[in-house]
Amino acid sequence: MKARNRAAMIWQKGIREGAWLTWDRIGFACLCSAIGLSLGLIWLLVVPNAFGAPNGTVLMDYFSFWLAGRQALAGVPEIVYVPAEFSALQVEISGSETVFGFFYPPTFQLLLSVFAALPYKMAFAAFVISTTALLCLSCRLITGKWLLAACLILIPACANNAFHGQNAALTAALYGFFLVGIERQRMMLAGFALGLLTIKPQLGILVPVALVASLNWRAFLGASVTTLVFAGLSAAVLGAGVWLMFWQQAPVAAAMMELGGVEWGKMISVYGSFRQFGLGHEISMAAQMLVGLGALICVWKTWRRTGDMAVRSASLIGGTLLVTPFALTYDLTLLVIPCAFLIREGLDRGFFPYDRILLAVVIGLSASTAPFAILLGIPMAPLLPAAILFLGMRRMQLIDRARQQEREPDHISGTASA
């Protein structure tokens, strides 16, 4: 009997309430993460290591970003959209056969030219630090606390993004600015951030659904204007022809995904998971579309029914990572934003049962999906955005139920007095 009571207490406190997730433990974990991230970046950029080419070039994703910016500064931006030429350029510069694709629009190339004026390793560090700082600012605007914002940018997914020199911290920050703008009724800020988010178009698939569902035409208009101005600026600086080259390269990106140009284990989509299980392109894409349809319905319902941004952010960003077939492990950094909203609401108004433990699991595993998939054959990545989407939908349901229960006594009292 005592053993049963003890087990029940462990479940109640440890799993249902997550009582062990105290600030001292979280703070210690964040301190370790900060030290590890700092030492890891120093090791990557300063110390000779396995990720370096024979001439010392760090062979991470940022190498293609830096070279893309360099070509923009050199007046030949279109080279990055000719895979054979861009690959040859990478081999020439690094002395290694390892090459990276560049499938981003010219707007992102224009942004990268700002950093490309620096030497490669300095540009790598500047890009990572500045984009992560933007994400920290975004989390500060959401939570109202610098300490909590600092903790959020130290989650494993952010470290994974930093080591790759990828842009997920930037896209997550822009998503955060967009959602803060919506929440605070600053629609031009929201539209501006959303327009800049077009540097990675596949991450904005569900945003129009959210804006139409909430009848938010001002943000829609602001995003449209920003997108057109941003695209026009890139065309004016880089040349209109570079946009044509970008669109002509699109089939190459699609073929790369279909033919396994990126390891399935490094993808976080439903499509990638089905491909890793050995299923074909058509079946995997059908499963992706089915899950995407479910995510779309969830976004429509939440943005139509509630203004609670913890619910909205969880459905939109969780749904976004479920709807796009091409997303990689570092894109899980986007989950920082709904986690920030959910944690803020939990600290202010109390967490719902299992909120803490689910958030801890999502955060803890946010950089471990590739090892699970590659080494163990378990493609668990889609479960993380699915868990965030679940937390958002459940939160909306529980809030609706609580409000209904509050109204019932008044209804009963009114009936009795009549």
UniProtKB/TrEMBL annotation:
The keyword Transcription does not apply. Its main location: membrane. It is a multi-pass membrane protein. Keywords: Cell membrane, Membrane, Transferase, Transmembrane, Transmembrane helix. Pfam families: GT87. It comes from the Bacteria. GO terms for molecular function: hexosyltransferase activity. InterPro entries: GT87. One of its GO terms (cellular component) is plasma membrane. It is found in: Cell membrane. The chain crosses the membrane at residues 102-120, 132-157, 163-182, 189-213, 219-247, 323-343, 373-393. Belongs to the glycosyltransferase 87 family. This is DUF2029 domain-containing protein. It comes from Roseibium album.
